[in-house]
Amino acid sequence: MGATPGPLHGRVMTALGHRHGAGVTRFAHGAHGVTCELAVFVHTEEPVKFTLLSLTNHTRRVRD
């Protein structure tokens, strides 16, 4: 599963959407009971980019 939009060879993902706001873009994808959400922030005054990646397992299966 990838965090950003784009093809991954041999992978099936569900694009849950992306949102744009003031200084932040959020991407969400899901596959095999796992949701991947990526938030990309930019600093208002400095040339700095921050990323926050969240993975949520919606199944009872333990993931390593």
Ends distance: 14 Å
Estimated helix fraction: under 10%
Low-confidence parts = none
Radius of gyration, CA atoms, in whole angstroms: 14 Å
Helix and strand run: EEEE
Strand order of the largest sheet: 1-2-3-4
What is the overall silhouette? elongated
What structural category do the secondary elements indicate?
mainly beta
**What profile does the largest beta sheet have?**
4 strands, antiparallel
Tell me which oligomeric state these chains represent. Answer: single chain
On the 0 to 100 scale, the average pLDDT is: 79
Describe this structure in words.
By secondary structure, the chain is an all-beta fold. It has a domain at 16-57. Helix content is 0%, strand content 53%. Strands 1-2-3-4 form a four-stranded antiparallel sheet, with no helix packed on it. It starts with 13 loop residues before the first strand and ends in a 7-residue tail after the last strand.
Care to give the gist of this entry?
The chain has about 60 residues and is mainly beta. Helices cover about 0% and strands about 55% of the residues. Strands 1-2-3-4 form a four-stranded antiparallel beta sheet, with no helix packed on it.
Key features?
single chain, 64 residues, four-stranded antiparallel beta sheet, elongated
Secondary structure topology:
Layout lengths: L13 E8 L2 E8 L2 E9 L6 E9 L7
Antiparallel strand pairs: 1-2, 2-3, 3-4
